[in-house]
Amino acid sequence: MQKFIIAVIAIAAAAIGIISYQQFGEQEPTTALVYEPPRALADFTLASTAADQVGPEDLKGQWTLLFTGYTFCPDICPTTMAQLRDLLPKLQEVASAPVKVWLISVDPQRDDIKRLTDYTGFFGEDFEGVRAEHKDLFPFVRGLGLMYSIPDEGESDYLVNHSAAIILVNPDGNRHAIFNAEHVRGEIPTVDMDSLERDFAILADRYQD
Q1: Residue 176, marked binder
Q2: 162 annotated ligand binder
Q3: At 102, which CATH number?
Q4: What residues make up the domain containing 72?
Q5: Residues 46 and 132 sit within 8 Å (Cβ to Cβ)
Q6: What sequence ranges are listed for the domain Thioredoxin (predicted)?
Q7: Is 77 annotated as a binding residue?
Q8: Which of 52, 57, 122, 190 has its CA 20 to 30 A from that of 183?
Q9: Can you give the pLDDT of all 209 residues of the chain as single tens digits?
Q10: How many domains does the chain have?
């Protein structure tokens, strides 16, 4: 039995407290949960497949989609990564800055940098894997309003429960929006990519105004 680090209810309550759903007057509304104003990320240091270490400064100058996952994930992660790979060219067409994806590994026991490099490399050069040990990973993931579970001590063959939402970070390096996953009975929870594409275009346009 895996132990949840953060209860889903607690995460939902925290999100309600810090995120405002904005319709911006006469502007076209989004289905994403939008930070208004965008929120700065707490300081962090993570190992990366693209550099020895990355921190908040490495999120600046680009739009970044942050997604928690792990290389042994059987369903949500490969599905979402493949969908994002197909979607990125469309997002790039409407953005004035590069659009990147960071896969935040929530399996520090098995996902080393080599494994993450091989995994993210399959999806393309715009995908970067980042990792840390639990003591540093936990506050970073929690600060994003996301969650993950850890295996019981000594367990080696396990699944990691984790959030399926995608966090959007703007070129200033601030949290801009959250795209929540759809939960449909009998299907894996994933973010609706049509909604993400539409909402991203709206948010990128507003950001440039």
Answers
A1: no
A2: yes
A3: 3.40.30.10
A4: 3-208
A5: yes
A6: 35-205
A7: yes
A8: 122
A9: 444 443 343 344 344 334 444 433 446 678 999 999 999 999 999 999 999 999 999 999 999 999 999 999 999 999 999 999 999 999 999 999 999 999 999 999 999 999 999 999 999 999 999 999 999 999 999 999 999 998 888 888 999 999 999 999 999 999 999 999 988 888 889 999 999 999 999 999 999 86
A10: 1
